Each structure stands twice: as C-alpha cells, then as structure tokens.
From TrEMBL:
InterPro entries: Ptyr_pPase (IPR023485), Ptyr_pPase_sf (IPR036196). SMART domains: LMWPc. The keyword rRNA-binding does not apply. Keywords: Arsenical resistance. It comes from the Bacteria. This is Arsenate reductase ArsC. The keyword Protease does not apply. It holds the Pfam family LMWPc. It comes from Comamonas piscis. GO terms for biological process: response to arsenic-containing substance.
Length: 168
C-alpha cells in the first residue's frame, strides 16, 4: 500500500524509439503496480518507424503485454496537452547527448545507457539473445526503481535516486 495518489509518469527516450525505450516502457508498465505509468519516445524516429519485432518477441516470451506499443517522436510529450512527466530517462548514448525539448514542470532526468541490441549483422538467434539480455538488464534496474520506498520517489529526491540507479 502506498500513499502516492497519482502514478509517477516516466518517459524513456532513445533515438528511434524501436527497441530499448520500448522494452523499458512495457516492462515498467508491467511491473509498476499502479505506482508508475511508463511512456517512450524517440528523438528522431524514422518515418513509419515501428517497434522492433525482436523487442516485441522477447517481451511476449517474458509474458509482458505489448499492446499499444508504438514508436513516436518525443515532440508528442513536449506539448502542453501531453501528460506531465515526473522522470525522464535516456536509455541510449545517442539520445543522452542530444538537445532535449523543454519539458513542462522540470522533471527529474537520468541516463541509463544500454548497448543497441540490434547492432551488427548477427544471426537472428544471436540478435534475439541480445534483446533478451538487454531486457533483463533493464528489468533489473526497474526492479530497484519500483521497490524504492515512496519517500525516495518524491520530486525533491527523484533526480538523485534515478541517477544513483544508473550505477547498478
């Protein structure tokens, strides 16, 4: 039982919003027990970008819902009508160095870097294994996040808390 009324809104960013940020969004929504609401976006998704099929496959194999997952630009979250974000986490090194839009409400930010599981011309099963490993690394860090006591998730300390988790 927690005393937080509204869930904590978390936005995961990566360049194309097709793999790592999609994995993080789906996992946190699955694990968040109503305390968290996850979203994801990309700094520069390609035209007609879709979530990576292997990312969706490893989520489904882990029993995580992929319903409603779609690739989208971070511009969707920079407009006044967008949900207010409490925490924004970049999950790829490219997006970490990019100039972010102005986020209403000055949310906490952190960078949790993961290698691109899609890199290189690896065979399909090796790629699938890379996606599975990336999903497990993200899940491990998210488990730490969702199990934090409520006071660690209050706006005043959220920045420090999220950045401390990047070391795990």
């Amino acid at each position: 039982m927690h005393d937080q009324k509204a869930p904590l809104n978390v936005l995961f960013l990566c360049t194309h919003n097709s793999a790592r940020s999609i994995l993080a969004e789906a996992l946190l929504n699955d694990m968040g027990q109503g305390r968290f609401k996850a979203y994801s976006a990309g700094s520069s998704p390609r035209e007609n970008q879709q979530p990576n099929p292997q990312a969706l496959q490893v989520l489904q194999m882990a029993g995580v819902s992929v319903e409603g997952l779609r690739s989208k630009s971070w511009d969707e979250f920079a407009v006044p009508s967008a949900p207010h974000m409490d925490l924004i986490i970049t999950v790829c090194d490219n997006a970490a160095g990019e100039v972010c839009p102005f986020w209403p409400g000055h949310p906490a930010t952190a960078h949790w870097g993961y290698r691109d599981p899609y890199e290189g011309g690896a065979p399909v099963d090796a790629k699938l294994e890379a996606f599975r490993q990336t999903m497990h690394m993200i899940r491990h860090r998210l488990e730490l996040l969702v199990n934090l006591p409520t006071q660690k998730l209050e706006q005043a300390v959220l920045q420090t808390t999220a950045r401390e988790l990047s070391a795990h």
